[in-house]
Amino acid sequence: MRIAQISTNTIPVPPKNYGGTQRDVHYLTEELVKRGHEVFLFAKKGSTSNATRTFEYESDDPKKQLDFIIKNMPEGVDIIHDHYGIVAKANPPIPTICQSHSKGIKSNVQIRVYVSKFILRKYGKRKGYAVYNGIRMDDYTFKTAKRKYLLFLGRLIKEKGVHLAIKVAKKTGRRLIIAGTLNDKKYYNAKIKPHLGKRIRYVGPVGGDRKHELLANASCVLFTSTWDEPFGLVLVESMASGTPVLGFNKGGVAEVLRGMPRLLCKTTTGMAAKVRNRKRLPSARALRRYARTRYSDVVMTDSFLKLYKRVINKNLYKIKKNTLWNRRKAKLQSAPTGDGG
């Protein structure tokens, strides 16, 4: 199969630190290539992959990016997987799915894909499909012996509930390491910075080996989001590392942890109690096995290949004539080449 993967222009593929969407694109691209498919990746400058060819955007302007994609789309592509939104909105004459890695899809696109059934129901109004994120299990360090610190991993914004992770750490008397990008300085100065010291540390953004080391050695990961999390990749990363991850029942969290209900919490008091009674939580091996069975890159790729074939074979995608894609393509073809003189 010839497949085009459309990433965003925000972070290269794969991302060095934070970048959930780009990491999904990376894992999916690499696994598809591994299985013998031809993959064409459109992504931000600096991206690297084993795709048949990687096209790096030449502009930060979405309109110019769309033109770039139209101009460089290889012949004979069977399906386009748009993680960005600009291609599906243009209605190309090639079967196209549009995946939302957050909440809803505001654009008028034909085939919508969400990262959890919760988001499909609440924001997608049950119109579309749900395919879970997946990670490459071998990328994550697995350990059964843990150190005595708690870990918060994610963006430092109110919605991620960093202040609640601090509250749990104080209730239990445990050390807490906070790792992630500082996206809200006002929130950081008011709710996080005053609590930093020997027992509560902020180590900045982490990626690669440092991130895997923190996840594998933590006694527990605290997933204290207070908003409707679309999925929660940190949940899966923690379990892949053999580390219990305690999360509030918000958004898709309960869905991701459906087979591990003991990891769900209602309050910081309940979360603190589970930290103290860690021996009653699932074992490292059980957590790793659960993550591999449900959320590996292999499982994710299986699901997308089934969806690709369904879209193509059942003609779910309707080819339209007067579309933005066709209008832009005609304009590009009629424009002067600049070679004359």
From TrEMBL:
Q: What is this protein called?
A: Glycosyltransferase
Does this entry carry the keyword Ubl conjugation? no
Where is the secretion signal located? Answer: none
Q: List the InterPro entries hit by this protein, alphabetically.
A: Glyco_trans_1, Glycosyltransferase_grp1
In this protein, which residues make up the domain named Glycosyl transferase family? 144-259
Keyword terms: Transferase
Q: Could you give a GO molecular-function term held by this entry?
A: glycosyltransferase activity
* Species this protein is from: Paenibacillus sacheonensis
Would the keyword Kinase be found if you checked this record's keyword annotation?
no
- Pfam families from the xrefs? Glycos_transf_1 (PF00534)
